[in-house]
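Hi, can you check this record?
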Amino acid sequence: MTDKHTRHELQELLNLGDRKNFRVQYLQPSINAGYIALTIPDKPTSSKQQYYLTDKGKQLVHSL
């Protein structure tokens, strides 16, 4: 993941289908840990919301 992606795109990249499970088990913990950031942080439920790797997330990917 090097660009900005929607929630749906991230789910497809990870081959995960359940929207609620994805948000609860993957997306929110990654945001809370600082690995992923929102493009519109003041509107987390915006239909135009996208996500991107932070420097911390990029370091994690690189170390794997």
